[in-house]
Specification:
The protein is an alpha/beta fold. It has four helices and seven strands, in the order E-E-H-E-E-H-E-H-E-H-E. The structure holds magnesium ion. The site of magnesium ion has 6 residues, from loops.
Length: 166
């Protein structure tokens, strides 16, 4: 029997906590790229994330720390882990690196596929019944959590610019 006291929250980062609207223009359009999954297209976009404004969910407030354990699921590649960590630190948060799940550098699958695998990885540590909600700005990702795993989902987006194309 689990003795877990805290509810687990899954939370996306870009456009949920990190205001990335200003740097969307740094994504190189697909027609100018070498191939469809050319990750160099996103390099400037990801690098600039350290400068985003932060807008955290209520469950991340310091007085909520005893009630919620947050796992961050981001489709940003591992190569940018230090950039993302510096953004958290700059905004007064220090999540444990093992609570930040990032895309493997060579993984060019859709974000839905990447986050489905992140969910399965989380399930090796946490029972599904302890996951109280999942936040994302993308409806396709939320639908996957809800229909495939029965998780309560919360749609949250800091802007309406649409997601990038993977
Ligand atoms: Mg997002």
């Amino acid at each position: 029997m689990s003795l877990r006291k805290r509810s687990v929250i899954i939370c996306d980062i870009d456009n949920v906590l990190s205001h990335d609207a200003w740097r969307r223009r740094l994504i190189i359009p697909v027609e100018l790229s070498v191939h469809r999954h050319d990750w160099a297209r996103y390099h400037a976009y990801h690098l600039a994330s350290a400068m985003d404004e932060a807008n955290f969910i209520p469950e991340m407030a310091s007085d909520m720390r005893s009630r919620y354990e947050i796992y961050f699921f981001t489709a940003m590649p591992e190569a940018y882990r230090r950039v993302r960590a510096s953004w958290f630190i700059k905004n007064g948060k220090r999540p444990s690196p093992d609570h930040i799940y990032m895309r493997a550098n060579d993984d060019t699958r859709s974000s839905v596929d990447v986050k489905r695998d992140m969910f399965r990885r989380l399930e090796t540590k946490v029972d599904r019944c302890h996951i109280s909600a999942a936040y994302d700005d993308r409806l396709d990702i939320l639908e996957m959590y809800a229909t495939e795993f029965g998780i309560k989902t919360i749609h949250r987006s800091l802007h309406e610019q649409g997601h990038y194309d993977n």
